[in-house]
Amino acid sequence: MNKSKKIFLIITSILALLLASFFVLKVINPNLFYKVGQKVDSLHGVSVYYNGNVGNVEGRQLAKDGYNIGLKYQCVEFVKRYYYEHFNHMMPNSYGHAKDFFNKTLKDGTLNKDRNLKQYTNSSKTKPKVSDLVVYSGTIYNRYGHVSIISKVNKNTIEIIQQNPGTYGKSRVDFKLERENGKWTIKNNQILGWLRK
User: Fold this and answer.
1) pLDDT digits (tens, 9 = 90+) for 89-148
2) CB atoms within 10 A of CB 188
3) Is the dihedral of CA 179, 180, 183, 186 positive or negative?
4) Is 31 exposed, middle or buried (0-12, 13-18, 19+ CB in 10 A)?
């Protein structure tokens, strides 16, 4: 066997191994401290559950009245369940990926009719507050984006609470909050903005 064929076989074997590992990690939860569906946190009495790998799906969650809350243990399911249980709020459009919660065509402070929530851009004249729903853009690793809820607002930081941050991700994370030229900015390039009841 010549050298180029050996190199080709080695590269093909490595790629096959990486691909197989990716699929195994999607199915198997490597975190020995939590089981999928285990409560890990809560905000205002609304629980956050562990989901394992971000792509894991455990079926659809429906409210008793039939309202679509979302795919179990995904980030969207938590924020919609939070708004449903804490505010008795049902979104007119109950479907969509996380990044779709933010309508890029709307001006800062206007009504997002799909969610029946006021929408603020990151940066906004309106300061974020507790219970605001934060929307993140998609990435090369997660094209669907992400959503979370603001759990604390301090002078220079906010704390968010989230579901489905990844196998070893934390349910709560802090971000810097800055006010410059009369506008508030959450210092994270993925954050599109926040929505409010």
Assistant:
1) 999 999 999 999 999 999 999 999 999 999 999 999 999 999 999 999 999 989 999 999
2) 14
3) negative
4) middle
Question: Using alpha carbons only, how large is the chain's radius of gyration in Å?
Answer: 20
* Contacts made by residues 44-51, CB under 8 angstroms, sequence distance 24+: 44/82, 44/86, 44/131, 45/85, 45/86, 46/78, 46/81, 46/82, 46/85, 46/86, 48/78, 48/161, 48/162, 48/163, 48/171, 49/73, 49/78, 49/163, 51/163, 51/164
Q: Give the angle 116-92-132 at the CA atoms, nearest 5°.
A: 40
Contact 98, 146 (CB under 8 A): yes
Beta bridge partners of 179: 184
Nearest to 164, CA basis, from 56, 23, 43: 56
Length of the chain: 197
- Backbone dihedral angles phi then psi of residue 146, each to the nearest 5 degrees: -155, 155
* Residues 33-83 pLDDT 10s: 899 999 999 999 999 999 998 889 999 999 999 999 999 999 999 999 999
- Are 192 and 99 in contact, with CB atoms under 8 Å apart? yes
